[in-house]
């Protein structure tokens, strides 16, 4: 599903990713771990097509298509979803209208009819209930005045409604208390299926207790320096990142 | 018989032109140029009339009275300068516009009369004098240039830390009404610094029309404290034009009382990236005072910040005006500019006019202003009274607390310590307490 | 010449509303069909207009006084707008509607760009024809339906007619109120309007009556080289309520056209007037050629205790807008409101805002202004809040936000705050922001294209104002913004 080959990325003239390789197949859950500044969030941003990042070498292939020539919304329509580390507020735009516009944009791409207001409302209500939002939540402005935990759960809500093929979770566990973490993890787990892949980017191991990955990669100095099974995460938890950075150097 | 305002203005302009013509040309070239340019500009710049937007809330009347254009005497008796608790910096004394006493300064700091400037000082003058206080549409700046008897240059050389300095703009003991046109140029070269305390003294019926130009070089820092703490019959008009270069810092803190006519026109230009400006103003007007602050921040370069805080109390029959303009030029991206103006009206006969303006031509900026005019917070008042403080005392306490935040921002402790009692004394003066005014 | 189509619509009944939308009302323009004056303005022109409308003598005299006063006034130059000097003698002040032979004969002859806009607004075909200046007979067919509503209004005692008609049928009411809120001396354009006003609406709601339906008027400017000078008066007697909607549009012309209207509202004790405008006059092309000069004086008087006047406006059109719907809060405990969205794009210039003049005790005013500037437009908020010494306990709150789209436009805020009462509170806040890269990226990551994303963000920015609009107008306003923003996103 996802093939990243020898990816080099620079931002403001500075090289951040320096030859990253990664393959994710449908049905798999991967975790990418690494210390601060290792390039984790850059990887997420460049995959989603954020401006300000330059691919200087290598490629990202998603479902057999090179992403480089695609606009952010075109990547989204093809099933790529990024759960943001810091979701931005959009004052005055209600969650409901935002969600519906977004779902309808995806449907239009697939040549499907727009949703009916009633059906969408039902779906949105059910999904927000699953994430333990009260009903008022859909009427509030997008992330407007939300707590950190609410913002992260809101990302999940969008993900569950859009049903992406590849979900990228950028530090989705940061700022969550244990209850919220459980809600988020349950949500992600419902999305696991043989047709989908999930890539979690995280600094800490604790998310992986709740969403158990098939594979764990360690990103350091702009490259994957080590890959393994879920036990690698536990090893990192014990030893920290230092030993790997030294090994990589 | 009442004379029409237009006729009085025309009469004033005519007398002023006659006076400029009567002056003999000075020998110092910088001063001669200043006079000539001022004279020419004044001749073609109309005085503010009833429809002049920037004079909407200032009536020019008090400046037009007979005698206020009379030439100041160079040898008029010097005033007694009231002591300033704990503050002992070198002092520049300008009396009726004449520089009368200049301090000896260590190497790297030049303080000289325009008329006596030579060598490097003369060079700075010819380069900078009049370069900031532009003349277009500003008849009184032009008049200052035309009638300036002399002026003072303060120059701090590159990377010199200039310490503290006092600039006194005072009236003489010459009791007859007359005019005075003080002119000051402050130049801080790159990397230098200075703390300048500017005090205005005198309550007689004198028209003081001052112009101060300040150029702050790259990474230089000027802490400027302005004290106008004497009221009375002084007609005071001061233009302050400042330019701040790359990574320069300008901090202007003001404690102001009104007078029969006081107007401060301040224009600060952030000309290069990284310039940082803070402005504070604590003002208090009473009696029939008039105090008009015309503030303009020109953001001409990207990545500059400005932060302005004004607090005003107006009691009795006084009038306080603040026009706070923030102008973001095209390309001044990443500017952060804020202005806060909070005002308390203390009497039914007082007036406060606030006009915070934003003029923005760049999109990636953070600009905000807020202005409030109101009354004391009833809850706080009740709280104090419930603790046994009398209502009048509680009102006084809260009103003064309102100004305290700005006073606390004065960077020199000695100046803070002198400002507080001065404001308090003015505040306690007869009729100021709101209870008494009701 | 102006053509003013009035309609009435029951609240919430969209089908009827659609049907009735922008119907012509009989008798509005018929008398004057064949008369056209050459360009130019003098006392004879003023007399001619008055005579054509068969006005009472006092009206003619008032017009003449206004004209004479206008001659002594200077063209105002304080607004933050720039345009070449207007030659008032090049304008025709009286002209019959263009004959059908001159106008486009079918939609095929109309600029497709304009039609595309109408389509997006969801305007039905016959309406599109009308708006585009195609004369359509069919719209006259439904006059009887309109009359049905007229009789329903009449039952309630509501007068809703053209001001020409009111001058014939209710001259005493017009005489009592015309110029009472906006005297002809008020300003240059009000004086001009007073001298030459062509038509407009007159509304009178009697004591205790809650107007049974929303009243609305659509204005359009059609002919070339004409100015439009309509005059609207709305009187709400004690305890009455009325909601009035006004829509404006104009066909595309290369020349600038002048629109100088005057609106006067009077709310007596316990009365409430809600006045909503969606203004979409032709703004000129992307180079600034053509477009309407919209110089309008709108003012309401809260005459009685607890009276309430609310202005809501969505301004997306006109080359130049100069407009400050204001409220004089004279009655104790009266309330004034101003909710505004002003969008300027291309080379548009808008200088708009409000004045809240607090005279009565415990008067309250709220100002919410949302300004959007895009491309090379100049958008200014200009507002005055004045608290008189008599206004004990008065309160004002002002929130003034600007949104910039692109780095070559301007967004400006010029508030005047004047207080002379120590027991009043005034609060003013202004902020400036842009559509942030982060917001745009989030929307795009969720599948929205950039134009849709920007229009959604801008709509969100305006929400506080849109929710003050009647439902049908709110939808139209949202769509208008969307269309206006097309191509504004780089």
Quick structural gist:
The complex is a heterotrimer of chains A (249), B (438) and C (490). Chain A has 249 residues and is of the alpha/beta class.
Please explain how this structure is put together.
The complex is a heterotrimer of chains A (249), B (438) and C (490). With 249 residues, chain A is α/β, with parallel strands linked by helices. Helix content of chain A is 38%, strand content 29%. Chain A has nine helices and twelve strands. In chain A, helix 5 (148-162) packs parallel to helix 6. The two termini of chain A are 31 Å apart. Chain B has 438 residues and is of the alpha/beta class. Chain B has one domain (5-376). Chain B is 23% helix and 37% strand. Chain B contains eight helices and 20 strands. Chain B has a ten-stranded mixed β-sheet with strand order 2-1-5-8-10-12-14-16-18-20, covered by helices on one side. The two termini of chain B are 35 Å apart. Chain C has 490 residues and is α/β, with parallel strands linked by helices. Chain C has one domain. Helix content of chain C is 26%, strand content 32%. Chain C contains twelve helices and 20 strands. Chain C starts with a strand and ends in a 5-residue tail after the last helix. Chains in contact: A-C, B-C. Chain A binds chain C through residues 48-51, 71-73, 75-77, 81-82, 84, 87-94, 97-98, 101-102, 105-106, 109, 141-142, 158, 162, and chain C through 436-439, 441-450, 452, 456-457, 459-464.
Into how many domains do the coordinates of chain B divide? 1
Structural class of chain B: alpha/beta
Helix amount of chain B? 10-25%
User: In one word, what is the shape of chain B?
Assistant: globular
Largest sheet, strands/sense/barrel of chain C: 11 strands, mixed
Number of strands of chain C: 20
Range of helix content of chain C: 25-40%
Compressed to H and E, one letter per element, the order of chain B equals HHEEEHHEEEEEEEEEEEEEEEEEHHHH
Strand order of the largest sheet of chain B: 2-1-5-8-10-12-14-16-18-20
Q: Main beta sheet of chain B: strand number and arrangement? A: 10 strands, mixed
How many β strands of chain B by DSSP?
20
Tally of separate helices of chain C: 12
Cα end-to-end separation of chain B: 35 Å
Name the beta content range of chain B. 35-45%
What amount of the residues of chain C lies in strands? 25-35%
Q: State the distance separating the first and last CA atoms of chain C.
A: 38 Å
Our Rg estimate of chain C from Cα atoms comes to: 22 Å
Which oligomerization state do the chains in this entry correspond to?
heterotrimer
Averaged pLDDT of chain C: 79
Low-confidence stretches of chain B: 434-438
């Amino acid at each position: 599903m996802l093939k990243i080959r020898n990816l080099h990325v620079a931002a403001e003239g500075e090289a951040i990713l320096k030859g990253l390789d990664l393959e994710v197949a449908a049905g798999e859950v991967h975790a990418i771990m690494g210390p601060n500044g290792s390039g984790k969030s850059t990887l997420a941003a460049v995959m989603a097509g954020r401006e300000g990042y330059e691919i200087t070498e290598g490629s990202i292939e998603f479902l057999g298509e090179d992403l480089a020539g695609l606009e952010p919304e075109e990547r989204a329509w093809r099933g790529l979803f990024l759960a943001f580390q810091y979701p931005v507020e959009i004052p005055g735009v209600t969650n409901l209208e935002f969600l519906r516009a977004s779902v309808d944009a995806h449907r239009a791409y697939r040549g499907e009819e727009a949703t009916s207001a009633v059906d969408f409302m039902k779906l949105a209500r059910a999904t927000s209930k699953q994430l333990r939002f009260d009903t008022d939540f859909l009427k509030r402005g997008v992330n407007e005045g939300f707590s950190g935990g609410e913002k992260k759960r809101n990302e999940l809500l969008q993900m569950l409604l859009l049903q992406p093929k590849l979900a990228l979770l950028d530090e989705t566990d940061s700022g969550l208390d244990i209850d919220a973490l459980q809600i988020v993890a349950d949500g992600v787990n419902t999305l696991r299926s043989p047709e989908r892949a999930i890539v979690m980017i995280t600094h800490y191991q604790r998310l992986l207790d709740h969403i158990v990955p098939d594979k764990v990669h360690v990103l350091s100095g702009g490259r994957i320096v080590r890959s393994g099974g879920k036990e690698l995460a536990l090893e990192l938890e014990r030893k920290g990142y230092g030993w790997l950075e030294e090994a990589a150097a | 018989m009442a004379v029409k305002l237009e006729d009085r203005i025309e009469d004033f302009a005519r007398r002023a032109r006659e006076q400029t013509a009567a002056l003999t040309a000075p020998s110092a070239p910088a001063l001669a140029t200043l006079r000539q340019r001022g004279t020419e500009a004044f001749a073609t710049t109309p005085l503010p009339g009833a429809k002049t937007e920037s004079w909407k809330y200032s009536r020019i009347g008090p400046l037009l009275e007979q005698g206020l254009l009379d030439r100041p005497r160079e040898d008029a008796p010097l005033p007694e300068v009231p002591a300033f608790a704990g503050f002992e910096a070198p002092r520049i004394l300008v009396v009726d516009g004449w520089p009368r006493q200049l301090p000896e300064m260590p190497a790297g700091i030049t303080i000289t009369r325009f008329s006596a400037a030579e060598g490097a000082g003369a060079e700075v003058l010819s380069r900078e004098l009049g370069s900031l206080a532009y003349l277009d549409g500003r008849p009184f700046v032009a008049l200052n240039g035309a009638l300036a008897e002399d002026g003072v240059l303060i120059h701090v050389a590159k990377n010199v830390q200039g310490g503290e300095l006092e600039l006194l703009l005072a009236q003489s003991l010459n009791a007859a009404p007359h005019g005075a046109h003080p002119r000051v140029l402050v130049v801080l070269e790159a990397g230098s610094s200075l703390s300048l305390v500017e005090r205005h003294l005198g309550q007689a019926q004198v028209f003081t029309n001052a112009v101060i130009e300040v150029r702050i070089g790259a990474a230089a820092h000027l802490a400027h404290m302005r004290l106008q703490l004497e009221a009375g019959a002084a007609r005071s008009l001061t233009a302050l034009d400042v330019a701040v270069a790359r990574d320069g810092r300008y901090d202007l803190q003001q404690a102001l009382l009104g007078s029969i006519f006081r107007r401060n026109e301040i224009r600060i230009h952030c000309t290069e990236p990284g310039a940082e400006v803070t402005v504070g103003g604590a003002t208090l007007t009473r009696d029939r005072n008039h105090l008009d602050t015309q503030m303009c921040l020109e953001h001409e370069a990207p990545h500059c910040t400005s932060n302005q805080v004004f607090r005003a109390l107006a009691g009795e029959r006084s009038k306080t005006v603040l026009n706070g303009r923030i102008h973001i030029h095209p390309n001044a991206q990443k500017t952060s500019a804020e202005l806060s103006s909070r005002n308390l009206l203390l009497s039914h006969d007082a007036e406060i006019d606030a006009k915070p303006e934003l003029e923005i031509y760049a999109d990636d900026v953070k600009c905000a202003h807020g202005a409030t005019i109101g009354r004391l917070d009833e809850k706080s008042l009740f709280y104090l009274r419930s603790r046994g403080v009398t209502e009048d005392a509680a009102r006084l306490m809260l009103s003064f607390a309102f100004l305290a935040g700005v006073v606390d921002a004065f960077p020199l402790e000695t100046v803070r310590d002198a400002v507080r009692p001065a404001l308090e004394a003015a505040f306690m003066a007869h009729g100021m307490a709101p209870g008494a005014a009701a | 010449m102006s053509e003013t189509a009035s309609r009435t619509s029951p609240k919430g009944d969209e089908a009827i509303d659609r049907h009735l939308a922008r119907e012509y009302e009989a008798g509005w323009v018929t008398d004057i069909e064949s008369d056209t004056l050459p360009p130019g303005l003098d006392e004879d022109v003023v007399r001619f207009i008055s005579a054509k409308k068969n006005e009472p003598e006092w009206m003619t005299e008032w017009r003449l006084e206004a004209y004479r006063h206008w001659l002594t006034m200077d063209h105002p130059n304080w607004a933050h707008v720039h345009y070449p000097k207007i030659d008032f003698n090049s304008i025709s002040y009286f002209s019959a509607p263009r004959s059908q032979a001159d106008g486009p004969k079918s939609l095929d002859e109309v600029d497709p760009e304009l039609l595309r806009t109408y389509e997006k607004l969801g305007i039905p075909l016959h309406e599109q024809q009308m708006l585009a200046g195609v004369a359509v007979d069919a719209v006259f067919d439904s006059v009887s339906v309109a009359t049905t509503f007229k009789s329903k209004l009449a039952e309630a005692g509501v007068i809703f007619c053209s001001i020409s008609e009111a001058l014939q049928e209710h001259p005493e009411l017009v005489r009592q109120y015309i110029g009472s809120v906006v005297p002809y001396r008020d300003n240059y354009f009000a004086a001009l309007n007073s001298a030459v006003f062509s038509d407009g609406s007159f509304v009178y709601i009697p004591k205790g009556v809650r107007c049974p339906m929303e009243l609305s008027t659509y204005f359009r400017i059609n002919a070339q080289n004409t100015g439009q000078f309509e005059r609207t008066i709305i009187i709400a007697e004690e305890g009455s309520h009325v909601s009035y909607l006004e829509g404006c549009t104009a066909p595309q012309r290369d020349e600038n056209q002048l629109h100088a209207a005057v609106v006067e509202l009077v709310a007596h004790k316990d009365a409430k007037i809600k006045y909503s405008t969606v203004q979409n006059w032709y703004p000129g092309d992307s180079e600034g050629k053509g477009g309407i000069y919209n110089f309008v004086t709108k003012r309401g008087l809260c005459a009685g205790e607890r009276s309430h006047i609310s202005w809501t406006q969505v301004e997306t059109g006109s080359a130049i807008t100069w407009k400050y719907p204001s409220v004089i809060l004279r009655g104790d405990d009266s309330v004034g409101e101003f909710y505004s969205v002003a969008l300027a794009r291309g080379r548009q210039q808008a200088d708009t805002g409000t004045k809240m003049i607090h005279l009565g005790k415990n008067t309250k005013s709220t100002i919410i202004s949302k300004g959007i500037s895009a491309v090379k437009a100049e958008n200014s908020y200009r507002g005055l809040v004045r608290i008189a010494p008599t206004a004990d306990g008065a309160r004002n709150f002002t929130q003034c936000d600007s949104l910039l789209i692109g780095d070559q436009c301007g967004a400006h805020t010029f508030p005047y705050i004047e207080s002379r009462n120590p027991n009043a509170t005034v609060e003013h806040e202004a902020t400036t922001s842009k559509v942030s890269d982060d917001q745009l990226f989030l929307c795009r990551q969720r599948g929205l294209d950039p134009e849709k994303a920007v229009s959604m963000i801008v709509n969100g920015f305006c929400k506080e104002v849109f929710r003050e609009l009647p439902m049908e107008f709110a939808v139209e306003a949202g769509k208008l913004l969307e269309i206006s923003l097309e191509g504004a996103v780089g």
